[in-house]
Amino acid sequence: MADEESELEQLRSRITALESRGSARGPHHRVRSFFSALLIVIGCVLAPLSAVAVWTADEVGDTDRYVATVAPLASDKDVQAAVANRVTDAVMRHIDLNSLLEGAAPADRPRLAKALARLAGPLDNALRSFVHDKAQAIAASPAFSTLWTNANRAAHDAVDKALTGSGGGAVKLTGNTVEIDLAPVIDQVKARLAADGLTAAGKIPEIHTNFTVARSDDIGKLKTAFRLLQLAGAWLPVLALALVVAGVLLAVRRRRAVVAAALGVAVAMGLLGLALTVFRALYLDRLPAQVSQPAAGAVYDALIRFLRTAVRMVVTLGVVIALAAWLTGPGRRAVLVRGLWRSGIEAVRGVAGRAGLRTGPVGPWVRRYRRWIVWALVAGAVLAYLLWSYPTGWVVVGLVLALLFAVAVVDFLAADPGPGAGADTAGPSPERVYPDGGDKGSG
Fold this sequence. Notes:
This protein is mainly α. The chain has helices at 2-59, 63-70, 77-92, 109-118, 120-139, 142-164, 183-195, 219-232, 235-250, 254-285, 293-303, 305-327, 332-354, 362-368, 370-387, 393-414, and strands at 173-174, 177-181, 210-215.
């Protein structure tokens, strides 16, 4: 009884000491937790701005990147239809039905003029349809693809000027609209019409009409913001990451902070993706009636395609990091998942051992250095992600699956085969020593 009372007293004193230590460290921990949360929140807020900054630097600051983004639009059916309609309207404004009588004999012109007057509507529609077919054929031809690429390469300076206030203007920047001149397309349509018998098209003067690439009444207001984001470029993502890492290192419970930070970044980027979708609807609703909404939607989707890809990639990466931090933690469910993983690996290893599979000296070596091998695999996956040009969400998923497969192979090789699976070394089985001290051999 005396021993029990003494032990109980010692336990009470230790509990008292721990409680006093905890209360003494409480304010310090609260301060650390506050600043940790503050840094993580700021980093999460900067995450979507970082994505926009990188997109601005790539799309606006890199001509080749911009051209590669908009070049596929030349094959888009909505863009081709919008270009054909625009060219048709421009050509029809310069074609008079009376000009079709120039090839007729002077004595027949009055009679033909009366016939044209009675059939003006149907003839005009037929002529418009004829011109539109030629314009549509040009818009769907490889020549238009070349014209579109060259025009957008020239237009890049205008886009830069529209969004940042700097740069030249190879194409027109009218107010808050970036436009591409379709004069080369009209020239090809005129030549095609003249070759197909509509000689009046050859007398049409040079026509300049424009196709809207980007338009916003708020471009003037956004110039400063876009300029700052372009200047920030790749530095803003580094700052956001540094703030998140600093917040995690400052946290009292770092694993929980990693989970919160990763999910916070994922949520912030998800909100950016939602904002891009909402802004698309608002942007299309505010376009003038003469602008083709399907074509404008295709252009918008092409311009922000890489930004949406970055959003999906970061959301996927954040969820993966949060899951990894949770699964490696001491939580009951995490321990259960890890136990199921080990049980599965050991079961497969046991079956392979009973089937005669031997790993030789590889198994013990992998068992000995398993931790270092796993960390090397993780470092390799991270390096592959960092060296990947413009990774997507599927790239992240692929790297994670490859890493899990590699870790499964390591765990398979490092698993203890057990006494019933046979020896797992290259040499003969070691002798077994029984409790009674007798040497029964290796049998």
